[in-house]
Design a protein that fits this description.
heterodimer; A: alpha/beta; globular; B: mainly alpha; 16 helices; 2 strands
């Protein structure tokens, strides 16, 4: 038996050595050796000297020597829904198509894979489709993958985007170009409003009063005034509660549970919940049952009308022109109709790419190209394209009036009080776990739950490597 | 053995025999080589790297080997998410292992009692869930437990259950995961236990029958003791499998669209993935996976040593 032990130990040692070798590779540094003519002063005379210079290459723009290769292949990661776009790109660029590989991949796994690629200093995709909250992960100091796009994107495009690029700025860098926006507005059904004899509210206070009035006049009739699940993005952001704000890569602000802006939002959620017209979920079965007959209002994203309401409306009501998208009401004390977003994505580029010229061209085409005007199914983020896209909405028989102008207006009002960074998604999940679910279960009120939510965010910030600052 | 190899072995001198014994140069050694390689690359290798990583610091995904001391262990085990995840995982495994064993064994013994056409049909039906994969089952469950969508919705309404969130709650979710795992794995387990039962020599069964043993006694006193090795094997596998629960909570989280009672760090495996996702630190995630591995190892060690799993009759 001793021999068995001995052999096992030596096998283990060999494996250990082998693995350590894997774990610590010699970092591969790309260098360019070139000859340069230098004018130097030598013994009082100027002479020209030819020197060889070794330059370390990084994907920062305007480096000391051109490290880029215009013929390097570009790897583009897309999801299943973006594959038709990939085909459209190939059709539009037959000359360059040979240089580009489109891969259908899971961007949820991207962050972890970046760490592995960093470890071996190769393998990163050059262009990736993803939500700003994902891009923020890829751009943070632990991953350090996303390039600052500013030098690669013509200023005109950046100017055209206007406010629509806000969520792409992370730590002062432009980490993505927006693909689509999911700005929350107030979806309503005009036929239901007519039945109830009510109009579209301008303030959240009016909205609540309408809900209380309908609950009183039509008890138990199942009218619907929105859902708890979206409230983190509409009530709290309309109230300008600064849930979390990443100051820079190492510092974050977490809301104070006593902040009147947050208490106001939570109180609004509580009061609305008390009317019984506020459903737990905007997708659940209860919501579907009421469509076309009982849904008065749903504060929700710009895609909600076409992708959730329309398919769930009874067929005979799909072309009767009942549904509209209005400005999300503002709180009376707030200057503007601030809102949030549910979804929305963008295109990011690798700082390791060897062909940033082509990679950035792809980013630009994917984010701002003509595909959006003709084929997009969600609100295109690039204004020149969404103008074309919006024309079709004007004549869509599903809508009571053209929702597009309001969508454009709401797009500029996505608040920047919270960052779409690393803690964006965890803060939403924590809201569901600690505020929404206990409220629905009747265990607590949203106002009382603010403490637990804030504490959790502080804890999460710590585990994500942030220092919480005031 | 062929005649040729026989003649060679006859020629063996004492010296080569000794050499052979020293380095085990027999067919058996060669046959296990593929397994050993696979185990090193996909089993032991990752385990060792997790151990190395757990003492290493990471910067942008690159390890600084053995630079972290115990900070990763302290960090991971004092993480506010750790104790809840440990509790959830341990509770789940503590229920899922015995439930899976009892149901698999019970149904296999039941099936083995009768041998007629009905039994063959039943057997096939019992095996079917084994063909379903976990992720598919999670989706079916998410629908089955939503009173609005479920075919059993009418049965749920009298209990006051209006939506999935009324049934799938923080309190019930562990038991629901156990049920899910049971349906996912029970088909395969019945097949294994049933196969083992088929391996019992007919003489033993006949002798018991002659002694007047009825079906229940036969199952309890004759068949089950003969399955001891299979049962131990099942428990070891099951502890390892259930300690790694990830798919169910992760998918349920996604399927219930923000209504879910499980967060994204419900189980230890999820927590490890979350730590890695948001801190980008393999070192901090490694202690969590080592802990899961240790539980599996300890369970296997105790079962093997305390039950004489590998002892043959001659040794006894």
């Amino acid at each position: 038996m001793k021999r068995v032990l001995w052999i096992s130990v030596s096998v283990l040692l060999v494996a250990l050595v082998a693995l350590s070798a894997c774990a610590q590779p010699t970092p591969e540094v790309i260098t360019v050796i070139e000859t340069v003519e230098k004018i130097v002063e030598k013994d009082g005379e100027t002479v020209t000297v030819i020197e060889t210079v070794e330059t370390v290459v990084t994907a920062t723009p305007e480096p000391t020597a051109s490290p880029y290769d215009e013929n390097a292949t570009v790897e583009v990661w897309v999801d299943a829904a973006r594959m038709p776009m990939a085909e459209a790109w190939v059709a539009a660029h037959p000359d360059e198509a040979g240089l580009v590989n489109f891969t259908q991949a899971d961007r949820g796994q991207m962050a972890n894979q970046i760490l592995l690629w960093n470890n071996i200093d190769e393998g990163w995709p050059d262009v990736v489709f993803g939500e700003p909250r994902f891009v923020a992960l890829w751009a943070d100091s632990a991953h350090d993958w996303a390039a600052d796009l500013t030098p690669w994107i013509p200023q005109e495009i950046i100017d055209n985007y206007g406010e629509n690029l806000n969520q792409c700025y992370y730590d002062g860098r432009l980490t993505c170009l927006r693909h689509d926006l999911a700005q929350i507005g107030l979806w309503y059904d005009q036929a239901v409003l007519d039945d109830l004899g009510i109009g579209i509210p301008e303030t959240m206070e009016e909205y609540l009063a309408l809900a209380q009035q309908v609950a009183e006049e039509h008890p138990g009739e199942g009218y619907i005034f929105g859902s708890v699940d979206a409230s983190v993005e509409f009530a709290f952001r309309a109230s300008q509660c600064p849930i979390q704000y990443e100051v820079d890569l190492g510092h974050i602000q977490i809301f104070d549970p006593a902040d009147p802006r947050c208490v106001r939002a939570a109180q609004f959620v509580d009061d609305l919940w008390a009317t019984g017209l506020f459903l737990p979920s905007s997708f659940g079965g209860a919501m579907y049952e009421g469509f076309g007959t009982k849904v008065a209002f749903v504060p929700h994203a710009s895609w909600y009308g076409q992708h959730v309401m329309y398919p769930n409306y009874p067929e005979e009501l799909q072309s009767t022109g009942q549904v509209g998208y209005a400005m999300l009401p503002r709180f009376a004390d707030v200057d503007k109709n601030w809102t949030g977003a549910w979804g929305g994505s963008g295109w990011a580029m690798s700082r390791h790419t060897k062909n940033p010229q082509l990679a950035s061209e792809i980013v630009i085409w994917m984010a701002t190209g003509p595909w959006h005007g003709t084929d997009a199914t969600t609100f295109p983020a690039y204004p020149p394209q969404n103008q074309i896209w919006g024309e079709a909405l004007a004549s869509d028989p599903f809508y009571v009036e053209d929702p597009f102008p309001v969508m454009v207006e709401m797009a500029d009002l996505i608040s920047t009080d919270i960052t779409h960074g690393r803690l964006y998604n965890p803060s939403w999940t924590a809201f569901t776990e600690l505020v929404a679910n206990p409220l629905i279960a009747g265990d607590t009120t949203a106002v009382e739950a603010l403490n637990a939510w804030s504490e959790r965010l502080v804890e999460l910030a710590g585990t994500a490597g942030f220092e919480v600052v005031d | 053995m062929t005649a040729a190899s026989h003649s060679i072995s006859e020629k063996d001198t004492k010296k080569t025999k000794k050499f052979r014994r020293k380095f085990w140069l027999d067919a058996g050694m060669f046959l296990i080589v593929p397994y050993v390689v696979w185990m090193l690359v996909f089993g032991l290798g990752p385990g060792i790297s997790a151990l190395v990583f757990s003492f290493s610091k990471f910067e942008k995904g690159k390890p600084l080997l053995f630079q972290a001391g115990l900070t990763n262990f302290i960090g991971a085990f004092t993480d506010f998410r750790f104790l809840p995840a440990l509790k959830n995982t341990m509770t789940f495994a503590a229920i899922a292992v015995p439930v899976g064993l009892v149901m698999g064994l019970f149904l296999a013994l039941l099936l083995h009692l009768v041998r007629d056409k009905a039994a063959i049909v039943t057997r096939t039906i019992f095996f079917i869930p084994g063909a379903l994969t976990g992720p598919v089952l999670v989706m079916i469950f998410a629908i089955a437990f939503d009173p609005k969508l479920s075919p059993y919705g009418l049965l749920m309404k009298p209990f006051g259950w209006q939506q999935a969130a009324d049934i799938i709650t923080t309190d019930t979710v562990t038991v629901l995961f156990v049920l899910l795992r049971l349906f996912w794995t029970v088909g395969g387990n019945i097949a294994i236990f049933y196969g083992a039962l088929e391996g019992i020599t007919p003489e033993v069964i006949e002798a018991a029958m002659i002694d007047g043993c009825d079906g229940v006694r036969m199952a309890w006193f004759i068949k089950m003791p003969m399955l001891k090795a299979w049962i131990i094997n099942y428990i070891i596998n099951s502890v390892v499998f259930n300690m790694q629960i990830y798919t169910e909570p992760a998918l349920l989280n996604a399927a219930m669209e923000g209504m879910t009672p499980v967060n994204s760090y419900w189980s230890l495996n999820q927590l490890g993935a979350q730590i890695l996702l948001y801190s980008g630190d393999f070192g901090m995630a490694a202690p969590i996976s080592l802990l899961q591995m240790t539980v599996g190892f300890v369970a296997a060690y105790l079962l093997v040593t305390k039950t004489g799993f590998y002892q043959t009759e001659s040794v006894q």
